[in-house]
């Protein structure tokens, strides 16, 4: 009797497990009724493309090619965890971005990762990039004035002079991502809280190594596809424990900096320092003292972490791709150099451009725009969720549906851009393709609307300074053994520049 009871119980358990398994597999193929009006892209294809580290352009052509032709570029996919609407056309995207209060960012990913994940521990969920509603408004208000003051063009120029020395030291053959990540990390540290990581001078400095461990550790593609894995990883991978230690160490430093700055701005000596010499954190805290918004110490710490992550790799990657595009297109490199020499002169000395010089680099701006279209570092915006039924350019997005604005697919959507794979700065010339097609939202590497990137002017100025100084000083091409000579070989799914991309610089003086 006892044995047959046990056997029955075992059958029931196995049966239940099989049903649950089938239900969860079926869940990946069964599109909810409310979303069946949109074409569906399979989970397997999308996950495979990401795990294979396929770049966004290839994905737009292969996996998404048919789906984005149909309903104004909108499609659905169960990805990463829920059925989500992906938008890839300027008008549907515009409709959503202009109503950002109806599409708050979701916390589903953070919940899936769990509070103990290094990603959540480092960035928190209360920073300006992740929060919504009044929490977001309060923080953004306190930051806006600090970001709106003039950008630190002189500091960028001084860092590139150091960069030029570093290129010489490395024998003129340079691993681009490593170089630009170091220079942009030093730049963001000085800009944020007058902290020199010194990574250009010393790549092994303690803080740059600590930060490097964190940013690499939290960008694991497997966690994008299966965020729930994180709670297992901490028990099985030794590197994960080191990562936790690094997060704690840098968090403590950032918290200490936030508290110390708060003490400084309240002291009388702060009033003696001119605004132009103050770092961003000081300006934020002063705005708070004036009553323009507020941020707690933990929010400040999370924001500093976010600024590092959002503000250094993005620009570094954009610069690498820019140099790549100019190495592939020598005529465009030469035309850009001609413009730079007209503004900065052709004497055999390094010149640091000032803000007036930057305004004259019109052709360079077209290059930077096209580069960000072709290889925008933010492949997608963070997921949002619709608060009510919403119609975006004729496409119904039902209430409570996760929505992803897929920037890179839009930038490579042949319905939006002619021959999207071709690098052609003339698209952004007056009267060129971009102006002529009248779709303002077809170019959105920094997003748009109230949640537009707060560091856009900072990054664009930084790119103009770095590129102009490099164009004046060097011509560049690929080393003979480069694997990128016949087209870029991407190494990651986020559209970041490949680590193996190197350039050979030829000094002009
Ligand atoms: C090429 C360089 C950059 C690109 C392509 C870029 C792109 C973006 C994009 C697309 C967003 C919108 C994200 C979303 O809504 O889901 C964003 C937001 C943000 N970016 Fe950037 N970014 C760049 C540089 C920077 C820099 C230099 C900083 C800081 C110094 C920065 C700080 C931020 C912050 C704080 C937000 C959140 C703004 C908010 O939600 O109010 N970014 N960025």
TrEMBL record:
Q: Which InterPro entries match?
A: Cyt_P450, Cyt_P450_CS, Cyt_P450_E_grp-I, Cyt_P450_sf, Cytochrome_P450_Monoox
Q: Where are the bilayer-spanning segments?
A: 9-31
Keywords for the protein's UniProt record, in alphabetical order: Heme, Iron, Membrane, Metal-binding, Monooxygenase, Oxidoreductase, Transmembrane, Transmembrane helix
Q: Where does heme bind?
A: 453
UniProt xrefs under Pfam families: p450
This protein's record includes keyword Metal-binding: yes
Its required cofactor(s), as named, are:
heme
GO MF, one term, reads: monooxygenase activity
Q: Which family does it belong to?
A: Belongs to the cytochrome P450 family.
PANTHER family, per this entry?
Answer: BIFUNCTIONAL ALBAFLAVENONE MONOOXYGENASE_TERPENE SYNTHASE, CYTOCHROME P450 FAMILY 4
Name of protein: Cytochrome P450
């Amino acid at each position: 009797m006892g044995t047959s009871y046990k056997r029955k119980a075992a059958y029931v358990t196995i049966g239940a497990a099989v049903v649950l398994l089938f239900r969860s597999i079926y869940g990946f193929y069964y599109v909810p009724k409310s979303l069946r009006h949109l074409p569906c892209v399979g989970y397997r294809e999308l996950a495979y493309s990401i795990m294979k580290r396929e770049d966004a352009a290839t994905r737009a052509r292969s996996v998404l090619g048919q789906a984005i032709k149909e309903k104004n570029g909108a499609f659905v996919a169960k990805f990463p965890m829920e059925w989500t609407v992906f938008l890839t056309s300027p008008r549907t995207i515009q409709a959503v971005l202009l109503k950002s209060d109806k599409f708050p960012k979701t916390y589903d990913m953070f919940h899936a990762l769990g509070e103990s994940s290094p990603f959540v521990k480092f960035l928190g969920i209360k920073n300006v990039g992740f929060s919504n509603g009044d929490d977001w408004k309060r923080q953004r208000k306190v930051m806006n004035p600090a970001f709106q003051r003039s950008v630190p063009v002189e500091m960028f120029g001084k860092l590139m002079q150091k960069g030029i020395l570093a290129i010489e030291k490395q024998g003129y053959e340079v691993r681009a991502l490593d170089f630009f990540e170091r220079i942009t990390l030093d730049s963001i540290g000085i800009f944020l809280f007058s902290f020199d990581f010194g990574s250009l001078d010393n790549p092994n400095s303690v803080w740059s190594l600590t930060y490097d461990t964190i940013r690499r550790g939290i960008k694991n593609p497997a966690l994008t596809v299966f965020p729930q894995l994180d709670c297992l990883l901490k028990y099985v991978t030794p590197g994960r424990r080191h990562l936790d230690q690094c997060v704690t160490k840098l968090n403590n430093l950032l918290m200490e900096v936030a508290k110390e700055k708060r003490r400084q701005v309240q002291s009388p000596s702060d009033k003696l320092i001119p605004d132009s010499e103050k770092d961003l954190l000081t300006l934020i805290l002063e705005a708070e003292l004036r009553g323009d918004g507020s941020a707690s110490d933990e929010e400040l710490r999370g924001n500093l972490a976010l600024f590092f992550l959002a503000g250094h790799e993005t620009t570094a990657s954009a610069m690498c791709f820019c140099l790549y595009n100019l190495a592939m297109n020598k005529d465009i490199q030469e035309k850009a150099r001609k413009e730079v020499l007209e503004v900065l002169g052709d004497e055999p000395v390094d010149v640091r451009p000032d803000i007036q010089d930057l305004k004259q680099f019109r052709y360079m701006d077209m290059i930077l725009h096209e580069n960000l279209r072709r290889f925008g570092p933010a492949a997608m915006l963070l997921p949002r969720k619709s608060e009510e039924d919403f119609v975006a350019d004729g496409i119904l997005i039902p209430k409570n549906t996760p929505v992803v604005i897929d920037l890179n697919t839009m930038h490579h959507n042949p319905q939006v851009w002619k021959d999207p794979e071709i690098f052609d700065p003339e698209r952004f010339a007056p009267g060129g393709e971009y102006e002529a097609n009248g779709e303002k939202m077809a170019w959105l590497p920094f997003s748009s609307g109230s949640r537009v990137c707060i560091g856009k002017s900072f990054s664009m100025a930084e790119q103009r300074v770095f590129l102009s100084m490099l164009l004046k000083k060097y011509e560049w091409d690929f080393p003979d053994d480069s694997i990128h000579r016949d087209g870029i070989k991407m190494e990651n799914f986020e559209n970041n520049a490949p680590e193996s991309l190197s350039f050979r610089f030829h000094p002009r003086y």
